[in-house]
Amino acid sequence: MGTPVDDLVDLLDLEQIELNIFRGRSPEEALQRTFGGQVAGQALVAAGRTVEGERPVHSLHAYFLRPGVPGVPIVYQVDRIRDGRTFTTRRVLAIQGGRSIFSLTADFHRPEEGSIEHQYPMPSVPAPEDLPSALDEVGSRLGELPPFISRRQPFDIRYVERLRWSKEELVDVEARSGVWLRTNGPLPDDPLIHVCALTYASDMTLLDAVRAPVEPLWGTRHFDMASLDHAMWFHRPFRTDDWLLYQQESPIAHGARGLARGQIFDRNGQLVVSVVQEGLFRPLKGRGAEGEGPRG
């Protein structure tokens, strides 16, 4: 039996079935949709495996087109759009059951020196060692962990602010959230694995910022939510098995859609990744349901 981190690495290890065509496993889950972070991470693996030389990914832009079906393999078709002197561009289409469910464009950049250097400072928050694991905190509160929690088991996620468990605790809560995260064990040294593992994790908590003012982040959910699109910019090298601070905020929610953006810092205060995502939010009819936010 492998660890959850081993399972994550295995999930991101695609089978090449033809030139520019890869197949990824989709785990069996008691949920209606495949996790969006899984599809985004696998699509980035497919793109990266067609890039030669030292050209790390510097950005991705993706759209969730249809909900994926858990347990059904996904085929990733890579289109080699550009192989330039310093930039490489790939477009990936994820297909399941003969239908396109996800599209991604990724750009890769040969490292070079720049003459302009600045970044936002990392906010002052408690250290991860001073915070409880989210799984421990949620498990002790709810007694039984929700079924989607298997997606989070490869990661140690710790909320930087206390979790609220009732609507009465939401007075004056801002549309923002923050977590420390890292994998629950070491990853291989391949930089692409670290980038794709973080891409997987980036879809777990980002839309929490949209929900924070209106309902507790855990427990009974009163909104049906789905990720609509996802964009990431990778500024510096990092390791996903080291602690990373993921600060998230939502500048607007309107018309059944909410926008969230995130900044990811390493322990040294360097801004390593920027993230933006829009999600669909519709009220659930009836009493609500147990679950989490973004599901892709």
Any overview of this molecule?
There is one protein chain. Helix 2 packs antiparallel against helix 4. This protein starts with a helix and ends in a 6-residue tail after the last strand. Helix content is 17%, strand content 37%. The radius of gyration is 19 Å and the shape is globular. Strands 1-2-4-5-6-3-10-13-12-11-8-7 form a twelve-stranded antiparallel beta sheet. The chain is of the alpha+beta class and 296 residues long.
Q: How would you summarize what this structure contains?
A:
The protein is of the alpha+beta class and 296 residues long. The protein has helices at 4-11, 36-48, 134-142, 191-205, 208-211, and strands at residues 15-18, 21-24, 57-64, 74-83, 87-96, 99-109, 155-159, 176-183, 220-221, 223-234, 244-254, 257-266, 271-283, 289-290.
Strands side by side in the biggest sheet: 1-2-4-5-6-3-10-13-12-11-8-7
**Number of helical regions:** 5
Order of helices and strands: HEEHEEEEHEEHHEEEEEE
Number of extended strands: 14
Secondary structure: helix percent:
10-25%
In terms of topology, how is this protein built?
Elements: H1 4-11, E1 15-18, E2 21-24, H2 36-48, E3 57-64, E4 74-83, E5 87-96, E6 99-109, H3 134-142, E7 155-159, E8 176-183, H4 191-205, H5 208-211, E9 220-221, E10 223-234, E11 244-254, E12 257-266, E13 271-283, E14 289-290
Antiparallel strand pairs: 1-2, 2-4, 3-6, 3-10, 4-5, 5-6, 7-8, 8-11, 9-14, 10-13, 11-12, 12-13
Helix pairs in contact: 2-4
